[in-house]
Amino acid sequence: MKKITEVVERHFLAEVISWLFFPPLVGTVFFIFLIFWYSTDLNQGLRWLVVIAPFLMFIPLIFFATSFKLGWISDIDLSHRQERPTFLLVFVVSLFAAAMILYFLHVPLKFFVYVFSGLVMMIIASLITLGWKISFHTAVVTSVVTAIVILGGFKFWPFLLLIPIIGWARVALGRHTLSEVIGGASVALIVTASVFYLFGFRLFF
Fold first, then answer.
1. pLDDT per residue over 133-177, tens digit each?
2. How far apart are the first and last CA of the chain?
3. So where are the chain's domains?
4. What is the pLDDT of residue 139?
5. Which of these, 138, 171, 181, 194, could form a disulfide with 185 (CB 3.0-4.6 Å)?
6. How far apart are CA 40 and CA 30, in angstroms?
């Protein structure tokens, strides 16, 4: 009985972690934070948010909800690899539109590079997932926390500890293998750090 209880508790904890760090939620929350961090005042931040929100949030969310309703996808994790391409294409196109709008709005370079790095990471991860179902939970969270360390400085390194925690949750739930979790995190770390580096921003130096 004790073992059963421990398994149930572990499964529940893994579910909570997976929901708290649901990729679109993590990316959107940090994006909104950066909007108001880099805007000169509240009004500018709200203007940026209103212009970008349709592409970053509403279009992907509406498409996802419609796909789920029509049975095009089986669950929120897009567990079946063949269900991913169409949704990822919509998300990538929306993210591209958001990046271009931010570019023409002349937002601060660090803010633009964050969005651009996310776009490049999603394109590469989406292409990889056509043949190998890497974890988008670890990919998106790794991309975000890598950006946090680059933008905020090495003092924010503890955020990197979120990566193995989320990786454990995905493996514990049986949604991904260890290699798929490591693959998602590795792709995101390499791509995000590389894009920032190309614009003159380094990860640890």
1. 899 899 999 999 999 999 988 889 899 999 999 999 999 988 889
2. 51
3. 2-198
4. 94
5. 138
6. 18
